[in-house]
Amino acid sequence: MTENYTLTAMQKEVDQYIQQFKSGYFTPLAQMARITEEVGELAREVNHFYGEKQKKATEAPNTVKEELGDILFVTLIMANSLDIDLTEVFENNMKKFNQRDYNRFERKEEK
User: For the NTP pyrophosphohydrolase MazG-like domain, which residue ranges apply (predicted)?
Assistant: First the structure.
C-alpha cells in the first residue's frame, strides 16, 4: 500500500471496519486486555529477535513490525470507542515532551 495515512484517516478507516459488525466496539476493559495481550506478544518477539531466547521450530514467524501494527490497530480502536482524537493527543504530547523534557537528555552537537 502506497497511500499516506494521517491519524485521523486511520481512525476513520478503523471505525468503518468496526461498524460492519453487530458487536461494535468492545468495552474499555476488554480493549485494555487486548492491548495488554498485544504488548505481551511484542515483548515476546523482541525477546526472540534481540534477546537470548530463540523461538521453537513450531512457533509462527511473527515479527516485531507485525506486533507493533497490532498494537497500533487496537490503540486506534480504543481511542475511537472513547471518542479520543489521537491527532490532538499526539500534538499535546509532543508539546509536553518538547517543553518538559527539553533539557532531560544530552543533545547531539549541531553541525
Answer: 26-105
CB distance 35 to 71 below 8 Å: yes
Q: How far is CA 9 from CA 47, 65, 75, 89, 99, in A?
A: 32, 21, 14, 15, 28
| Integer angstrom CA distances of residue 82 from 10, 15, 28, 29, 57 | 15, 12, 8, 12, 40
Task: Give the other-Cβ count within 10 Å of 38's Cβ.
Answer: 19
Range of the domain at 69: 7-85
Indicate which CATH number applies to the domain containing 17: 1.10.287.1080
Is 45 part of any domain? yes
Does the residue 75 lie in any domain?
Answer: yes
Per-residue model confidence as pLDDT tens digits over 49-90: 888 878 777 777 678 999 999 999 999 999 999 999 999 999
Residue at 32 is within a domain: yes
> Does the model's pTM come out above 0.70?
yes
In a domain, 98, yes or no: no
What angle is formed at CA 23 by the lines to CA 77 and CA 78, rounded to 5 degrees? 15
